[in-house]
Amino acid sequence: METTPGMAKKLAIEITKSSRHSKITGDFGEHMTLYLLSKHGFECALVDHTGMDIIARDHKKLKRTMGISVKSRSRDALHAEESLLVPKDNFDKLTQACNWFDCDPYFSFVVDRHDKLSVYIVPLDVLRSELYPKTNGGLNWSMTPAAVKKYADNRSVYRWELTHSVESWWPGSIEPGSAA
Asked: How far apart are CA 145 and CA 87, in angstroms?
């Protein structure tokens, strides 16, 4: 039986994540972004610099280099639509790093939310002018159905999504989505 978001909330069980899950999620988001860029012809590298996680360029399509800050979150069914908070200083740090390395600022939002893994790569100017124009400080990257539709309708938002399910899990544990 396929579950709807409302059913998933009712069936959701408390899942204890590892003590390093936030770090692992961040690393996964960076590598997922690298993978997608590389798969689609971009030369890219992970960088260890304040404000910037990835430098990338597709010499055939882009005339300039991208400086990308990756924000990753892992959400269970109960919290699948929660926003990703991006503090104001993240915008300042990305802008400064891109000035130093002469590249255009982008954000990559990687969200594992219940049964979907989504990656959005967005130019900072589009983020500020079209998607969240009234935000002067930080922002909340929304994951509500209306916001996801807004991202899908914007041709400047590069979007990739994978729908997944757990087919089998560790013996003796409660399988996600099953009634306890």
From this structure: 23
Phi–psi pair at 109, nearest 5 degrees: -105, 120
CA distance 54 to 168: 34
C-beta separation of 158 from 121 below 8 A: yes
The counts of H helices and E strands in the chain are 5, 8
The range of the structural domain enclosing residue 110 comes to 20-163
CB-based burial label for 116 (10 Å; 0-12, 13-18, 19+)? middle
- Indicate whether 80 belongs to any domain: yes
pLDDT per position as a tens digit, 126-168 = 998 888 877 667 888 999 999 999 999 999 999 999 998 888 7
Separation between Cα atoms, residue 178 and residue 14, nearest integer Å: 12
Tally the domains of the chain. Answer: 1
Q: Is residue 37 part of a domain?
A: yes
Distance CA(57)–CA(179), nearest Å, equals 47
148 belongs to a structural domain: yes
> Could you give the CA distance from residue 153 to residue 94 in angstroms, rounded to a whole number?
25
Q: Structure pTM?
A: 0.84
